[in-house]
């Protein structure tokens, strides 16, 4: 065994982490295992006292400082989780902790650091900006710097996770999937696993827009990214460490890059198995594992993913839920063009058939053609060509929008606006039981002589679906329309006089 690897093995075996950390469980993910055809295990570091693995490395570093060093106080730069580990360790060791965090840090994390007694300074847009400022403050005040990843004691503290995995799962294990930011976690885990059971693969996972480690490995030296994506703030690192680069290049077997949609789907996967909500970095191991299994077509293997954090702002969950459907390839998002004539909506509904509609938005804008945004629940992406063919046979050309960021982030919410063609329009809000086919039954129950000029529906996962519909009804047919509304049996509200409607849609 290489003497440097032996050194890390000794450091990990002697790491002081259990004064503050717990031995997290290695749990079998029942639903994921059944769906993926493999034995999937989750190393639940999200259950640590600060909901992240980071306290292991931080405490192992700080407990080894001399009394004189602790008296000077410590400083660190962190996107959030390392900061909590340092703050908790400082409280346990009774020393000052100054934490420099990017201004983009979720408030949940900065508030948690303050609650633990850390002095928070918000600076810069990324970890690298915060790091540079923390180094300046260190020089000014002679603090001891606690690096979040590029320090042998920090790496050894994180390596205890690998030690626990192999102790908890002594049967054959194909691979362990580890999220990479600066590389401290994967360096420690890989050092232990390759020293003890080198046949177990260690697979690194990075966000496609924050892949500093992968680009560094390809370049043969640590490089600095100009920009990093901020969705996974816990791994938004522009420059990896020298030591973590060395260890990762020598010990890690393979790498996978994942995108935002895949991570959102992995957050949902973890919730369905554990009822816990991971932060994006915490779900990257699962996302990478799913992608790796699909690429290599593995069956019947045992694989583990480290769920390394669960510090996520509640208001981010709306975005996560929205994008999870696309990430797990269970929603098709289409722009469908139909003739602007009576009966077109009915034919479109008949073509869609019994598929569950997740979104349906339309605004009259042209005398010849109507453009409808349609979301449909699918079992996998293989369903999409069949949907396109069925629509084409009816003369309804469709554009696939599932990979179009503009559509997913903005345009799906902007379908609508004013129209010069909405004469005699009545605006109603309807509620109906949210069951498969309910929306289609509503559409097909409409009087064929009344033109739909506006329609907006989005499945929000509630018991009741809510739609906004504009219907062009001649004045002489208003009595018939009111009878239709009363006999429909859906709760409704007439919004025709609503001033907001007149400001933005009329």
Molecular structure report:
This protein folds into three domains: 3-50 and 152-323, Rossmann fold (3-Layer(aba) Sandwich), CATH 3.40.50.1100; 54-145, Rossmann fold (3-Layer(aba) Sandwich); 329-504, Biosynthetic Threonine Deaminase, Domain 3 (Biosynthetic Threonine Deaminase, domain 3, 3-Layer(aba) Sandwich). It contains 20 helices and 18 strands. It has helices spanning 3-13, 30-36, 54-62, 67-72, 81-93, 107-115, 127-141, 152-168, 184-196, 212-219, 242-251, 260-274, 280-296, 317-327, 344-352, 383-393, 405-409, 438-444, 478-488, 499-504; strands at 26-28, 39-43, 74-77, 97-101, 119-122, 144-145, 175-179, 201-207, 254-258, 302-306, 331-339, 357-363, 369-377, 398-400, 425-433, 451-458, 464-472, 491-494. The protein has an eight-stranded antiparallel β-sheet. Strands 1-2-10-7-8-9 form a six-stranded mixed β-sheet, sandwiched between helices. Strand 3 (74-77), helix 5 (81-93) and strand 4 form a beta-alpha-beta unit.
């Amino acid at each position: 065994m290489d003497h440097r690897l032996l050194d890390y093995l000794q450091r990990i075996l002697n790491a002081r982490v259990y004064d503050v950390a717990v031995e997290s469980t290695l749990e079998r993910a029942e639903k994921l295992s059944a769906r993926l055809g493999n034995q999937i295990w989750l190393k639940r570091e999200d259950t640590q006292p600060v909901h992240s693995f980071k306290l292991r490395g931080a405490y192992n570093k700080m407990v080894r400082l001399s009394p004189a060093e602790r008296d000077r106080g410590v400083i660190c730069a962190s996107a959030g989780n390392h900061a909590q580990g340092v703050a908790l360790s400082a409280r346990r060791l009774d020393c000052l902790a100054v934490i420099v965090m990017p201004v983009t840090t979720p408030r949940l994390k900065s508030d948690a650091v303050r609650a633990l007694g850390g002095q928070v300074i918000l600076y810069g847009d990324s970890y690298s900006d915060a790091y540079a400022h923390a180094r300046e403050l260190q020089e000014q005040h002679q603090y001891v710097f606690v690096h979040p990843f590029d320090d042998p004691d920090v790496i050894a503290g994180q390596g205890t996770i690998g030690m626990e995995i192999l102790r908890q799962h002594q049967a054959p294990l194909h691979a362990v999937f580890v999220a990479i930011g600066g590389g401290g976690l994967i360096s420690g885990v890989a050092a232990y696993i390759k020293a003890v059971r080198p046949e177990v693969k260690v697979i690194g996972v990075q966000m496609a827009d924050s892949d500093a480690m992968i680009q560094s490995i390809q370049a043969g030296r640590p490089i600095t990214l100009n920009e990093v994506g901020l969705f996974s703030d816990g791994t938004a690192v522009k420059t990896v460490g020298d030591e973590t680069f060395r260890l990762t290049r020598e010990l890690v077997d393979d790498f996978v890059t994942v995108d935002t949609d895949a991570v959102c789907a992995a957050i949902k996967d973890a919730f369905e198995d554990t009822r816990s909500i991971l932060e994006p970095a915490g779900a990257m191991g699962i996302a990478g594992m799913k992608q790796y299994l699909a690429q290599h077509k593995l069956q019947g293997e045992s694989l583990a993913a480290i769920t390394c954090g669960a510090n996520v702002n509640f208001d981010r969950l709306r975005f996560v839920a929205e994008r999870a459907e696309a990430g797990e390839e269970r929603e098709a998002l289409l722009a469908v063009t139909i003739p602007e004539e009576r009966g077109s909506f009915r034919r479109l509904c008949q073509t869609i058939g019994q598929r569950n509609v997740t979104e349906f938005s339309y605004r009259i804008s042209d005398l010849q053609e109507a453009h409808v945004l349609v979301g449909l629940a699918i079992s996998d992406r293989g369903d999409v060509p069949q949907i396109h063919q069925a629509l084409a046979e009816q003369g309804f050309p469709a554009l696939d929008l599932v990979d179009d960021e503009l559509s997913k982030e903005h345009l799906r919410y902007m379908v609508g606006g004013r129209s010069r063609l909405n004469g005699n329009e009545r605006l109603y809000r309807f509620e109906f039981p949210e069951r498969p086919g309910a929306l289609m039954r509503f559409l097909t129950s409409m009087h064929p002589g009344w033109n739909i000029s506006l329609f907006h529906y989005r499945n929000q996962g509630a018991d009741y679906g809510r739609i906004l519909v504009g219907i062009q009804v001649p004045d002489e047919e208003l009595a018939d329309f009111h009878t239709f509304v009363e006999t429909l049996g859906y709760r409704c509200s007439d919004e025709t006089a609503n001033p907001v409607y007149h400001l933005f849609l009329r």
